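Z., the sequence and structure:
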Amino acid sequence: MRMNLKYWLIGIAFLGLNQTALASDLNVFTVQQQLGKQERLFDAVIEAVHQSTLSSQIVGRVVEINYDVDDFVPKGGVILRFRDTEQQARLDQARAGLGEAKARRKEADDEYQRVKDIYARKLVAQSEMDRAVAGQEAARARLEAAEAKLAEATEQFEHTVIKAPFSGYVTQRHVEVGETVGVGQPLMSGFSYEHLRALVQVPQAFVGSVRQHAKARVILKDDHSVEAESLRVFPYADPQSHSFRVRVNLPQADYGIYPGMFVKVAFVTGEVERLLILAEAVVKRSELTGVYVLADDGRVSLRQIRVGGRIGNQVEVLAGLSEGERIAVDPIAAGIELKQQR
């Protein structure tokens, strides 16, 4: 009986040593306080940086519409055309007038040079020289007027073709083919997905620190975030809400978000010490959020914790852990060892 008890005690000791050895094979992360950025979260709305409504610069009749609502328009793409018969006639007339003015200018220059040579030999009177100079100046003025008329006619002709100022999507069409429109009448509305920004209303209590640090990140779905490229704090507050409008510009990329969507924006307002752990060490089972903690004797236990926001590949621990404790980085391996201990 004593011999059996001896072997039983030896077995228990061997089992404990084996468990300690297994625990030592786990990849361990030591919980530590880290100095990090203090952030304040606010709701925001995504909007397009490039959004506009194209309007008519002339009075004309629409003869062609190439895009409709939800269509993608490349930069410089022809959205619609007006009837251009009148503008084309004015352009041709201006070109002809410019050609005539150039010929008159050459004729006046030649006459001036001829009279100048004769006048130098004192074969003509001063009045002849004055007439040659006046004729040259008049020809120069007529040429400048003809060039101005050509520029005006060219601009009016270009207004018969409406081109996209940036690549984007059409959100609204305001005219139909055959419709006569006036100056300033809306034609097409659209925006671009290439450049997006978040619009935030920041309370006046935080606007000072937001302006001081000028750093923010936009939190997207699945807790992923994007560092802001820049931000602009408006220099005045809304008289009703007493909050300041802030525009947070995102780097150019496809984030899977669209104008009008709600997001969260985290503004840096200072520095604070946080208890941070690796995000991959956190276990989520139904409503339980926890980590596998390693005791000094090598035993593993699952402990529930309360977490805060995510910062890169780490998460903040609000409750459940203390500085200096060790946790398993790989929850699967730690779970297997816990079952062996049991």
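The longest helix spans residues 85-120. The radius of gyration is 39 Å.

Let me know what you think.
H.
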